[in-house]
């Protein structure tokens, strides 16, 4: 090892005692049980449902409360207390509104603070004191530590402790303290969060989810195809940009574009008003909590058509300049017989309905009108100048990857493209053939390049981002083609079918999963593949745990739009030192219902895997890093102090 590095390290550890203390500390941590990992996916803008799952730790918070208080509290009291931990601000307000006098409130404060102080040591029993300290509300660390570590063996301090509590209450600090402690408990119960893709699209509040994630203590993200679409838009892909606006229009979510991200839709609206009218195929989806006036609905219908047509036109030149995308079938505008109003795709001819081709010149159907070009260019400027979007996209890049090997498992939103024999599918890019992990690494490097060269809009890297959204061998999409055009304009549903990559059938097979794990240098005896992306249809009896538990699919549909297909409201996964558990969530109605009725989402647990022996930090990713630190410190010890 370079002595220079050791000299630098010695600046931080400038005494023998400091080195020794750190080695002892790290060695000891390796023997603590591993922290709880929490996996979620396909959040699709459903901020409230996500918040609930995050705050209740997929049921873990209540479980810990039960462990401690089941003999001391009624079921009703446990519910109330759990709700307080999930939503402290709202619950405190509600309780206060019900209490009639100061004494009652005083007693309530006293009891609740004591209960929380009782729960915290249990919730933090896997952690070092220093880690617990970091999780405590900063302004109250001293007070809380006094209460947490109270020892009154000699009965000298009884009144001292009582006084601390009394002063907090009389000085009006209880609400703040209880709120802080509630968040401490949430944080202690989940050590690390994995978001296995698709934060964006369909639901109303992806931006709020991003803000939550930015403030979360520890997480990683595996991008989904919808996240990549947003990254692509920000990175300069006009076709990705057209797509995100189209999807927002379709789901009546243009507020995200206009209000949340401050992107100006006026030029698009002007164009839309000029060329389009009502059209049943483009009316926005209805939400019972966000009703639209007739006028608003009509406006969105027009915008939806305008941006969809721009999208289809923008696809054409990319398909033509990138032969190897192998997407000629998607040159749909050029497959239309404009006289007969029909289209021939995949060898079949269909009549078209609900067409809106006012801006199209049949002799050159993919040509953007000057007005359309101006609109999309202005939109791009607006997107790339949104401060909030910049913040969210940069975070998505910083915490995100296409896939992640973590603690022996492979986390990936979509798939590893396979051929029908279960071999890794090959793709030729710029004259070289790639497959498996190498293909994914290349995809990721293109995305990162495009992101850091936002001014380049038609280069290979930017086109590749769109390929990740919709290409046959994209690990995020993994279907033969996206039939968006057919879904709008062809009645026959057979034309809407999107043929899935073999992966989605072969992943039922243990051997296939084992080989994929090996491709990523993971141990097939212990690892699992964790996927999102394809809604698991519980109603039809589909099992999210596949291939003898090697494969777990956790897209149960947070997305309200998909809940009737899945029959549940999302899966999440927990992985602690005892093993892995899948949690199936029932419909989440509203936060208010939880706060008022203590009605928690009922969740059903299924054990995926049990550890034979409790797993320790030493066996985890973090443990490996700590071991490296220890070995450095030992070298420093020899070099500096052991002569
Ligand atoms: O249900 P919608 O919103 O029309 O979206 C359908 C489209 O979404 C996709 O399923 C992609 O989104 P997912 O990643 O959520 O599956 C496409 O394959 C399909 O064409
Ligand atoms: Mn997806």
Describe the fold and architecture.
This protein has 643 residues and is of the alpha/beta class. It has a domain at 225-489. The protein has 27 helices and 17 strands. The strands form four sheets. A seven-stranded mixed sheet has the order 7-3-2-1-15-16-17. A five-stranded mixed sheet has the order 8-9-12-14-13, with helices on one face. The mean pLDDT is 94. The structure holds 1,6-di-O-phosphono-beta-D-fructofuranose and manganese (II) ion (MN). Manganese (II) ion binds at residues 198, 224-226, 413, 533. 1,6-di-O-phosphono-beta-D-fructofuranose binds at residues 198, 225-226, 479, 482, 484, 498, 533. It is an enzyme of class 3 (hydrolase). Pathway: Carbohydrate biosynthesis; gluconeogenesis. It catalyses: beta-D-fructose 1,6-bisphosphate + H2O = beta-D-fructose 6-phosphate + phosphate.
Brief characterization of the structure:
Strand 2, helix 12 and strand 3 form a beta-alpha-beta unit. The protein contains 27 helices and 17 strands.
Which labels suit this protein?
alpha/beta; five-stranded mixed sheet; seven-stranded mixed sheet; 49% helix; 643 residues; carbohydrate metabolism; binds 1,6-di-O-phosphono-beta-D-fructofuranose; 11% strand; binds manganese (II) ion
